[in-house]
Amino acid sequence: MLDLRDAVFSTWEARVRERIVQARDVQHPILIDTLPAFYDNIAQSISPDYPRITAVDGTSVAAEHGGERARVTVYDHAALIEEYQILRWAIFDVLQREQVDIGHHEARTIHASIDAGIQEAVEAFSLVHSGFRERFAAALTHDMRGPLAASMSGLELILLSNDLTRVKTVAAKALTNLQRMAAMVDELLNTMAFHSGESIQLALTKVDIWEVAKEVQTDALAAHGPRIHLDGRSIVGCWDRAALKRAVENLVSNAVKYGAAGSPVTIRLDNVHERLLLTVHNEGEPIPPDEQECIFQMYRRAEAALSGQRQGWGIGLPYVRAVAESHGGSIGLDSSLERGTTFVIDIPLDARLVPAAPTLQTTNG
Hints:
Blueprint (H helix, E strand, L loop, with lengths): L4 H15 L8 H5 L2 H11 L15 H12 L4 H21 L6 H57 L3 H32 L9 E4 H16 L3 E4 L4 E4 L1 H18 L6 E8 L2 E8 L20 H5 L8 H11 L3 E7 L3 E9 L17
Parallel strand pairs: 2-4
Antiparallel strand pairs: 1-3, 4-5, 5-7, 6-7
Helix pairs in contact: 1-5, 3-6, 4-6, 5-6, 6-7, 7-11, 8-9, 9-11
C-alpha cells in the first residue's frame, strides 16, 4: 500500500476534482492536505504486529484535515464526507488494478478507518465553523453597538430638549444611525439568503453608475481624505442602485482597511461589450492565493484581518459577491505585491437579461 500511495492519490485527486465542485480550483498542496499521513496510518493499521488498530488510533490527523478544510477552502459537510468516500474506493480500485490481494480483516480495517476519519474530520470541521459564527456574532454586536448607542443618546436628548432646531438636528443624526443599522441587517439577511441558494431580491431601475460611484467617493473622501480616486465616465444600466452602492462602499472600505496606509484607492468604471467593469484597486500586501476564495465566504476573513485585529464582521465581501452574482455577473480578484489588489465587479448592463430575473421596480424606467 505504501508503494501505491502516489497512484491512489492520483486517482483520488482526479475523481475529487471531477465530482466535487468546491475542489476544482483548490491548489494541489491544499487539496491533498493531511490525507497522505492518514493513508499511511491505514497501511500501518493493516500491517501485522504494528501497534495501530485503525487510521485514527492515537492521532489527530483526520481532525486536522477537517479543521483545515473549514479554514482554507469553501467545502461544506457534504463535500468533506464525499472526498473520504472517494478515497475509500480509490484505495480499493487501485489495489484491485495492481492485483494486490487483501483479506476480509484488512478490508474491514480500511472501511473502519475511513468511517472513523469521516467522523473526526466532520466534528473538527463543525467546531471551526462554530468558532467562525461566534466571532461573527461578536463582531456584529460590536459594530451595531455604536449606532445603537448614538441613536439612544439622541432620543434621550430629544426628550429633554424644548429647542425645536436642536431636536431636528439630533433626530436627523439618530435617524442616520438607525438607517446604518437597518442597512447592516439587510446586508446580513441578503447574504445569508444568497448562501442558502437564493438570489438577492433586486429592485431594478435605470442607474448611472458614475453617480453612484461619485457618492461613494464623496463619503470616502470625508472619512479618509484625498486618497480616494474615481476614474471613468457615465454608464447607464438597469441595476439595483442601493445594492450596488453598498457593494462599492464595501470594496472601498476593504481597500482602505487592508491597503498600504495613505496609498491611493482607485474606483474605475468601464463599459466592455455591454457589461459594466467596476474595479477598486489598492496598493499593499497581496492576498495569498490560498485565502482568495475564503474571503468571499460568510463568517470568513483573510488571515491578515484576524492577525491584525482589524475590526469587521466578515460579511462585506460575501455581500459583494451576492450582489454581483444576483445581477448575473461575478466578482473577480487579482492580487500581487507588484500589481496591488484589484476587485472587479463584472455584470451585464441590463440585469433583466439574467434568467429568472430579479424583482423589477418600474420607477425611473
